[in-house]
Amino acid sequence: MYDLAKTESAVEQKDTKISARNVQVYYGDSHAIKDVDVDIEDKTVTAFIGPSGCGKSTFLRCLNRMNDTIDICRVKGDILLDGEDIYDPKVDPVQLRAKVGMVFQKPNPFPKSIYDNIAYGPRIHGLAKNKADLDEIVEKSLRRGAIWEEVKDRLDAPGTGLSGGQQQRLCIARAVATEPEVLLMDEPCSALDPIATAQVEELIDELRQNYSVVIVTHSMQQAARVSQKTAFFHLGNLVEYGETGQIFTNPVDPRTESYITGRIG
Amino acid sequence: MTDISQNGSTPRKHGETLLKLTARTKRRNAAERRFQAYGIGAIAIGLLMLVILVFNIVGNGMGAFTQTFVTLDVTLDAKKLDKKGNRDLDDIKKVSTFGYAPLIQKAFEAKVGALGLDSGLKAKDMAGLLSKGAPAQLRDYVLAHPETIGETVTFRFLANSRVDGYMKGRVTRDSIENDKNITAAQLDFTDQLVQAGVIEKTFNPAFIFGSDASDQRPEAAGIGVSMVGSLFMMFVVLALALPIGVAASIYLEEFAPKTWWTDVIEVNISNLAAVPSIVFGILGLAVFINYMHLPMSAPLVGGLVLTLMTLPTIIISTRAALKAVPPSIRDAALGVGASKMQSVFHHVLPLAAPGILTGTIIGLAQALGETAPLLLIGMVGFIASNAPDSVASGLLAPNSAMPAQIYEWAKRADPAFYERAWGGIIILLVFLVTMNTLAVILRRRFERRW
């Protein structure tokens, strides 16, 4: 269990990284996200929980504008990253996504070598001046992804040849290689076995020191284990948002309580 | 009372043995066996037809690859060929092919004398065994090698198509009764010469590499020049259809918004693939020749028309290949901050490449075998010229294409051309099978699993 008092005092000092106000998302005619206000803090793991179809993944994808790729999806309201509106017409989503990295539900390494998987982001963003620089970035990223020791001897092997858990850590390493400030994770452990899940969770906890991490999860235990803040979504509404300990032990809203005790969802 | 309502079948009762089949199970099993038998029957019929086709084509067409030759020692008489004796090429040129015919007759007489044969034929009839192109072959040689005048040179002349047919069993003494081109005595003489080793049937590379010949000389006709025509058309198709088709597919699949307008385009592309090829032919005639005034019968125009025809095939297969790339790869690329175009060109396209290549090769193979549009733009003429010597003439000089050449031969009256049409089909099929095999190999080789 978390030491609640300690966590709270640590959280209080942190700055707001992402601030969402009055966010509405529409898929065609359906209103998928309704009036969501949330402040996501820096150097904190924030968990989004809720039953399937509640909009938590949709909201996550708003944070790096991955929803732009869906033709029928419209986003209204303000989402500010460090005080800048990410939906401002002057913002290029490509630059935004370099700052706000993403890890997906299913491990999706490129069908290329492990090295190229990591090096791709830095290459297209011009982060490395030469091969030595790039080698260094690759090593650093793989170390941060807690997978360096396992793959350092076979960087030329295809990334798709790794096990599921290794692939997901490779994807996390790939996401951190572009030096993002926020890391979004969309159910990163749903395709993994319990051992790989434990490794990824441990990794998430380490990542908290450098990044603001937002994780969508179906597992309430996972949310309780890895996050400091938790947001509960239900039917497109943000029902409750607060300290993880408080949400799980003393929820304010009856819907939250029903969900975490297993009566809905 | 319940038993009465069951017509013949008894439902399984509790405690009944599993070792005995019920009537119902038997019926179901029988139905399944019948269905399998129908399927095997259908496949067997298909295979049988294929075997018949292959045997027919090979049986009818292999003859075109061999040809009957007559070997003669011709004395290049200086008195006839260079009357002034100064070896001036312009003077030598004044002797027409008619002037060379007596040399061949003399050579025959000399050969018969040396072998001690008595055919009872006149020298002119003996020379009738040869192709009508023989004196021209002799003249071409002399003009190329004027220094050999006065010497005796050994030549291999093509035999007349009747003699060739006799050697291949197509022409018999019965079949020539009404034939003015050959007599039974000439066939007897042929037998004598075969025994003496003067006439022999060998492999004929000129069929594969040579040009078409006139109605009078089927023995000299070859498919080579039209093969070059087909080759140039394929270059045009590849150079235009691949980039245009791939670019169109990428735009439609990855970038275009899904509106009713793109739906209309999509449906139209699918429909274009089913448009009869002759429609593309008349379109090419109207646009490329009548409006743009490109030369008739040119492989460039043929290639343009076939490009129009191949584009839908390439677009459809390319889009299918792009669709087959899992969306997670696109997400992954976008997630690390790649632009849409980077995600397509760095990740999606390489994964789709084997499918695109396969589609392109299949489209090219389809275009290679297409005849109807070529009829309309005039790429089905009598092209007896030499193979084009430059890229420009290859694209713009009148030429034929393999399937058009085959059609042309099949139209002609002489059965010797019929044999050549089958031979041409063998060559065309070799090309098509090769291309399809290549497509399969490429797909196997580069297909990635993820």
TrEMBL record, chain A:
<feature type="domain" description="ABC transporter">
    <location>
        <begin position="18"/>
        <end position="260"/>
    </location>
</feature>
<dbReference type="Pfam" id="PF00005">
    <property type="entry name" value="ABC_tran"/>
</dbReference>
<dbReference type="InterPro" id="IPR003439">
    <property type="entry name" value="ABC_transporter-like_ATP-bd"/>
</dbReference>
<keyword id="KW-0592">Phosphate transport</keyword>
<keyword id="KW-0413">Isomerase</keyword>
<dbReference type="InterPro" id="IPR005670">
    <property type="entry name" value="PstB-like"/>
</dbReference>
<keyword id="KW-0813">Transport</keyword>
<keyword id="KW-0067">ATP-binding</keyword>
<keyword id="KW-0547">Nucleotide-binding</keyword>
<dbReference type="InterPro" id="IPR027417">
    <property type="entry name" value="P-loop_NTPase"/>
</dbReference>
<dbReference type="InterPro" id="IPR003593">
    <property type="entry name" value="AAA+_ATPase"/>
</dbReference>
<protein>
    <submittedName>
        <fullName>Phosphate ABC transporter ATP-binding protein PstB</fullName>
    </submittedName>
</protein>
<dbReference type="InterPro" id="IPR017871">
    <property type="entry name" value="ABC_transporter-like_CS"/>
</dbReference>
<dbReference type="GO" id="GO:0016853">
    <property type="term" value="F:isomerase activity"/>
</dbReference>
<dbReference type="GO" id="GO:0005524">
    <property type="term" value="F:ATP binding"/>
</dbReference>
From TrEMBL, chain B:
<keyword id="KW-0472">Membrane</keyword>
<feature type="transmembrane region" description="Helical">
    <location>
        <begin position="300"/>
        <end position="322"/>
    </location>
</feature>
<feature type="transmembrane region" description="Helical">
    <location>
        <begin position="348"/>
        <end position="369"/>
    </location>
</feature>
<protein>
    <recommendedName>
        <fullName>Phosphate transport system permease protein PstA</fullName>
    </recommendedName>
</protein>
<feature type="transmembrane region" description="Helical">
    <location>
        <begin position="272"/>
        <end position="294"/>
    </location>
</feature>
<keyword id="KW-0813">Transport</keyword>
<dbReference type="InterPro" id="IPR005672">
    <property type="entry name" value="Phosphate_PstA"/>
</dbReference>
<comment type="similarity">
    <text>Belongs to the binding-protein-dependent transport system permease family. CysTW subfamily.</text>
</comment>
<dbReference type="Pfam" id="PF00528">
    <property type="entry name" value="BPD_transp_1"/>
</dbReference>
<feature type="transmembrane region" description="Helical">
    <location>
        <begin position="35"/>
        <end position="58"/>
    </location>
</feature>
<keyword id="KW-0812">Transmembrane</keyword>
<keyword id="KW-1133">Transmembrane helix</keyword>
<keyword id="KW-1003">Cell membrane</keyword>
<feature type="transmembrane region" description="Helical">
    <location>
        <begin position="231"/>
        <end position="252"/>
    </location>
</feature>
<dbReference type="InterPro" id="IPR024573">
    <property type="entry name" value="DUF3333"/>
</dbReference>
<dbReference type="Pfam" id="PF11812">
    <property type="entry name" value="DUF3333"/>
</dbReference>
<feature type="transmembrane region" description="Helical">
    <location>
        <begin position="421"/>
        <end position="442"/>
    </location>
</feature>
<dbReference type="InterPro" id="IPR035906">
    <property type="entry name" value="MetI-like_sf"/>
</dbReference>
<feature type="domain" description="ABC transmembrane type-1">
    <location>
        <begin position="227"/>
        <end position="439"/>
    </location>
</feature>
<dbReference type="InterPro" id="IPR000515">
    <property type="entry name" value="MetI-like"/>
</dbReference>
